[in-house]
Sequence to fold (426 residues):
Amino acid sequence: MSDDAQAEIRTNLSWLLRLRWGAVAGQLVTIVVVRFAMDVALPLAPLLAIVALEILSNVLWSLRPAARRVPRATLGGLMALDVVLLSALLFFTGGPHNPFSFLFLVPISLATLILSAAWTWALVALSLACSAVLFLWNRPLDLGPSHAAHMAMHLRGMWVAFGVSAAFIVYFLRRIRRALAQREVELTDSRTRAARQERLASLATLAAGAAHELSTPLSTIAVVARELERQLQVGDGARALPQGVADDVRLVRAEVERCRAILQHLCVDAGEVMGEAFVALPVGELVGRALAGLEPRPSIRADIAVDVRALALSVPPRAIERALHGVLKNAQDASPDGATVSFAVTRVGERIEFTVRDEGAGMSPEVLARAGEPFFTTKPAGRGMGLGLFLARTVVERLGGAVTFDSAPARGTTARIAVPAPTGPA
Fold:
């Protein structure tokens, strides 16, 4: 049985147990009211014994270790037991003449939502069989000699039974539906994260292949450029060349080294960080690492709250450093000349939040919805590959955190990176 199916069974079981506790409370109240308020002679001993059996079955399931897997037949078995116990209660209280026989519909209605078709029809058949038995064998209640009084009480009981059944069906089915919808959202989020991890693994393979294929031509270009530069420095041929050729050769060498560094960072970002060990890193040191290597313009104004500066986060240092560095670099690229990027670090509840605000043009709702997708970028050609936000989100979600964006045209963008705060002393 898959983990998704097991989670669904556990969700349904928890709500079924709550329904059974509600049924126990309702049965006890009904017994007390009918016996003492309406002064109807009831066989209290067998009725209370049946209710006690319901309580015992609920307690036993509640004490079951949470780690143990729940068999698929558990839900159907419990609901079949409920039908039998309801039939036993009706047997001692008038059988089919009891207006609360209407409650047979409650487990059937619930079964249509949480059980398979086979189990649902089996429950219908069991309910019909128990109802038929009650027509043949039951203990009638003594409601007095007046037939009119008897019918009046029966009709009032039908009204109460209808209200109780409707309340149980509507309330619990809506709660189960809400719980299942929430579980579906969690499953969708889990699948999205798994897809990001698969894409990250693909990027690692792509980066390793690119680095391997490009290393040889880059090395050749570097060697040739170095030889040209040496000849220009020591040979007489430099006088016959146009002015600035030596500078161009040095620029070629510098750009080759830059290409090597980019390939190295791509390999690190896409692959090696996934296996990086977690270490305790103070927030102040992490911020310093993230800011290192960024352009001086547009400027970045860092503001670290006093109560978090010395906190040590358990993180893969290079991975989280590159994630923050990429978000800050994007904010610089989006901001106009003379603007200032705001970088604030605060504690929000049980998380440390890194907030980056730029003064750029902002993003439309359509672009904002795609922010963080791999290879999606609004930068001009050659300025980026659309991997920075994707890698940042993947790394942060691996830590149990989240990356969110708030943006609109003409008012800039705010990126929030939240990671779990340390629970122990700093």
User: Anything to note?
Assistant: The longest strand covers residues 340-348. The two ends are 43 Å apart (CA to CA). The domain at 276-420 is CATH 3.30.565.10 (Heat Shock Protein 90).
